Amino acid sequence: ASTSDEHDVVVIGGGPGGYVAAIKAAQLGLKTACVEMRGSLGGTCLNVGCIPSKAMLNNSHLFHMAQHEFKDRGIDVGDVKLNLDAMLAKKDSAVKSLTSGIEFLFKKNKVDYVKGKASFTSANELSIAPIDGGSSYPLRAKNFIIATGSEPSPFKGVEVDEKQIVTSTGALALQKVPEKMIVIGGGIIGLEMGSVWSRLGAEVTVVEYLGAVGAGMDGTTAKTFGRILQKQGLKMKLNTKVINATQEGGKVQVNVESAKGGKPETLEADVVLLSIGRRPYTEGLNLEAAGVEMNERGQVKIQSDFKTSVPHIRCIGDVTYGAMLAHKAEEEGIAAVEYIKEGHGHVNYDNIPSVIYTHPEVAWTGKTEEEVKKAGIKYNIGTFPFVANSRAKTNGDFEGSVKIISDAETDRMLGVHIIGPNAGEMIAEAVLALEYGASSEDVARTCHAHPTLSEAFKEACMATHDKAIHA
Ligand code: FAD
Ligand code: NAI
């Protein structure tokens, strides 16, 4: 390519970090290209992550409701049967419409969509290997943004075949409901996908190394959540270490022992889901040729303005530091482009919401009680149970509560932890409150419509500095 074709920005990776960065860059008037090797845009999130998992969570929840709850609600539907093929097809069509939607947005915003695998040849040039074959060609740019995402962490002794021993990708496409399923790792993927297959009829056992599920969420919230899942039928083996897995007689045998050592045991299942975390993905990117450094965990090293060790190459999303979440990657994508164009950008890492889309949902933002305690901050806690919220009662869906942590001296809200119906939507109010430095009293004095679930949020705020009305 001649210098006249040189792009202002080339983004490597078309996931939520990369595609959002590319659109924003084009909107700011920068000549932009986005390189993606998958054959469709949207990255892990749209293709094999957030979107297909939420389609399966929603539809498996409806199936479970139809099977176990409709009758009690006065809805007789006769014999409820699962059509797994149709459910999987529905998931695939949700994915297809959203990924092609991004392709449309690229056209609309004049982002050049480069379908190929990118590899650095120098700090100023990539070599693109086209996905449909053909010879590689160079692509030059003034600025690069690395957004190559992550992949499932492997575990020695548990070899993934995506049929019987699967990662989330295989777990989103099982052709048959397994009789027994073992989930290794009680984090977000394990609990979401474990819930899906449990609702569809599998007997699910979650093996977790730590003493609680939920991968680091607020302590009391994790305990309550664990209890709720157990009540739903998920078996939990906490404080348990996996040694290895073998395959025999069409089944998988998982050898485990107590995390503290000893007490070996063999569990058997039809399908094993390995969900012990994800790791940064930089395979074939040839970062060495560009001089971009990584740390010992394989994360691309960056500064607060997303610059790597080579200043005109920035990096965002799962492949660098921080929470591996789509919305975090998107925020970084916009901020990184603003740094390139305007010299400043902003992401508030203290207020990135997390949501687990089980039923009930779990959502949180800001600090956990453990973190506040450790920091030596004096704090107040206000809680409000959904069982005392009129809308939740009317809906017959009232498990969980809202927990607010605020500074005891200033009443400034420091953290919010919700288990409950639609917690993932409700957390937006908490994020906004924390972003604007609200006190619990500020929210308590804000009018919330009746009857809505959001009144539980208001009442938890009332309970933080004073008293709730309905509890
Ligand atoms: P990715 O989405 O991983 O995208 C990177 C892209 O770069 C990929 O498409 C890849 O093909 C491409 N690429 C890599 N190397 C190259 C190269 N050399 N050349 C060209 N292209 C390249 N997060 C949430 O916030 N909410 C959720 O509900 C949620 N659910 C999830 C469910 C599952 C099962 C999984 C696995 C993840 C989920 N996540 C969720 C996490 C979310 O998917 C990631 O945080 C998000 O996709 C990260 O975005 P990214 O742009 O950094 O990387
Ligand atoms: P995770 O980090 O959420 O959980 C991994 C769990 O496995 C932890 O609880 C950990 O203690 C446990 N573990 C680790 N090694 C183990 C071992 N050897 N034996 C038993 N347990 C072990 O990772 P997960 O669930 O794989 O998800 C990866 C990431 O994907 C998440 O951290 C999240 O960022 C993202 N994601 C987000 C979703 C959402 O936002 N709703 C949904 C799904 C994934």
TrEMBL record:
Enzyme Commission number(s) of this protein: 1.8.1.4
Residues of the FAD/NAD(P)-binding domain: 7-333
Domain of life: Eukaryota
Cofactor(s) demanded: FAD
Binding site for NAD(+): G185, G186, G187, I188, I189, G190, L191, E192, E208, G277
Active-site residues per Swiss-Prot or TrEMBL entry: H450 (proton acceptor)
Additional note from the record: The active site is a redox-active disulfide bond.
Name of the featured protein: Dihydrolipoyl dehydrogenase
Source species: Piptocephalis cylindrospora
